[in-house]
Design a protein that fits this description.
Strand 5, helix 6 (about 115-125) and strand 6 form a beta-alpha-beta unit. This protein has 2 domains: about 5-20 and about 265-380, Lyase, Ornithine Decarboxylase, Chain A, domain 1, CATH 2.40.37; about 25-260, TIM Barrel, CATH 3.20.20.10. The mean pLDDT is about 95. The protein is of the alpha/beta class. The longest helix is centred in the middle third of the chain and has 22 residues, at about 195-215. Strands 1, 11, 12, 13, 14, 15, 16 and 17 form an 8-stranded mixed sheet that branches. An 8-stranded parallel β-barrel has the order 2-3-4-5-6-8-9-10, surrounded by 7 helices. The chain has 11 helices and 17 strands. The structure holds pyridoxal-5'-phosphate. Pyridoxal-5'-phosphate binds near residues 49 and 259.
Length: about 375
């Protein structure tokens, strides 16, 4: 189902239609729903990497406690959006980014002992003791929760190996400008199992409390990252109520989801330029494709989509159409991999109709190879 305001925006876009539609009300609603189930004192950051459209960032910045960024570019966006807290993550920060993070007063999620030394070296001459707020990102010894893109409990480039954490904390204690607030424990993406995610959060808090006590560290920051899932194929939904009820209370608890806040607020719409059949299979060919919305190709699934019918037809000749058949939704690129969805049954679909894909607001445009073949970019419509 495509909401009416989205259909209106899509229908009023220039032809051939190719657009993202972002709905600010949905962004606010998602943030409010998540904030409502968090325990007292927990802070909610938005992970800008999920969707860095300035209006999306500004809208969420106004309703959450802060923003998580992972590059100098995202930091600039976060600063111009105006927000209380900025957390700076990423396994390969440059000296310039570290300096900018310190200048902006970020909490820096430090990923290695070397990065900790560089952070202090870059910032030291200009900083007062204890003024650089740091959380050490830890690659825990135990496996993380289920989901995709696992980043902890196994060999990954992220964080300090748990076995080396005491040495990293000892190093931090010798760097006067650095003040370690706690830990950053982002573990996974797209976990649909709310109960398992709450267990992960609880276990992360317990571990942080134990570890901080053992190391003599005053603990004011336990960032459990993002990872709350969205089921694009329409089955399970992340059970927010169950998640909230099982969360522990800790004054330092921080969550930084991206997908959960942004995915539902975006639609990708593209006009069907051609409808054809080869070797017995129907194809709807779009003015658009995976260079704008890469997620289904990257994750190898069929994204759901809806036909928005358009009755006007500008040509004096017949309109290609397919009725009551399965159709593959494919893009304009010269590669057989430019496929957004396969085998979706349609009652009727014509060239000139518009395909609309919901849940495209996170890791859609931001992760796509937009310049491949140099087609024009989609319009960005914010409602
Ligand atoms: C450090 C960090 N925090 C937060 C996120 C957001 O994750 P999600 O969009 O799955 O909630 C990511 C995603 O990769 C990340 O790497």
């Amino acid at each position: 189902m495509v909401p009416d305001p989205v259909i209106e925006a899509v229908r009023s876009a220039p032809r051939p239609v190719c657009a993202y539609v972002y709905d600010r009300t949905v962004l606010r609603d998602r943030a409010a729903a998540l904030a409502a189930v968090l325990p007292t004192g927990a802070r909610l950051l938005y992970a800008v990497k999920a969707n860095s459209h300035p209006e999306v960032v500004r809208t969420l910045a106004a309703v959450v406690d802060g923003l998580e960024v992972a590059s100098g570019g995202e930091l600039e966006l976060a600063r111009s959006a105006g927000t209380r807290t900025i957390a700076f993550s990423g396994p390969a920060k440059t000296d310039a980014e570290l300096a900018a993070a310190v200048a902006a007063g970020c909490v820096v999620h430090v990923e290695s002992a070397h990065e900790l030394r560089r952070l202090a070296a870059v910032a030291e001459p200009h900083t007062t003791p204890g003024s650089i707020r740091v959380a050490i990102r830890v690659n825990r010894a135990v496996a993380g929760p289920p989901g995709t893109h696992r980043m902890t409990g196994e060999p990954t480039p992220f964080g300090v190996d748990e076995a080396e954490l005491p040495a990293a904390l000892a190093l931090a204690a010798r760097l006067p400008a650095v003040r370690v607030l706690g830990f950053h424990l982002h573990a996974v993406s797209n976990n649909l199992d709310a109960a398992a995610h709450a267990v992960f959060v609880r276990e992360s808090v317990d571990w942080s409390v134990r570890t901080a006590a053992a190391q003599g560290l005053p603990l004011s920051y336990v960032n459990v990252g993002g990872g709350l899932g969205v089921d694009y194929t329409g089955g399970t939904q992340f059970d927010l109520g169950a998640f909230g009820r099982a969360l522990p209370e800790h004054p330092g608890l921080v969550l930084e989801p991206g997908r959960y806040l942004a995915a539902h607020a975006g639609w990708y719409a593209a006009e069907i330029l051609d409808v054809k059949r080869t070797h017995g299979r129907w194809f709807a060919v779009l003015r658009g494709g995976t260079h704008h919305f890469r997620l289904p190709a990257a994750w190898r699934y069929s994204h759901p989509w809806t036909v928005v019918p358009v009755d006007e037809w500008p040509y004096p000749f017949a309109r290609p159409e397919v009725r009551d058949a399965p159709v593959d939704l494919v893009g304009e690129l010269c590669t057989p991999r430019d496929v957004l969805a396969r085998d979706r049954h349609v009652d009727r679909l014509r060239a000139g109709d518009i395909a609309v894909l919901p849940w495209a607001g996170a890791y859609g445009w931001d992760i796509s190879h937009r310049d491949f073949l140099r087609h024009p970019y989609p319009q960005m419509l914010v409602i």
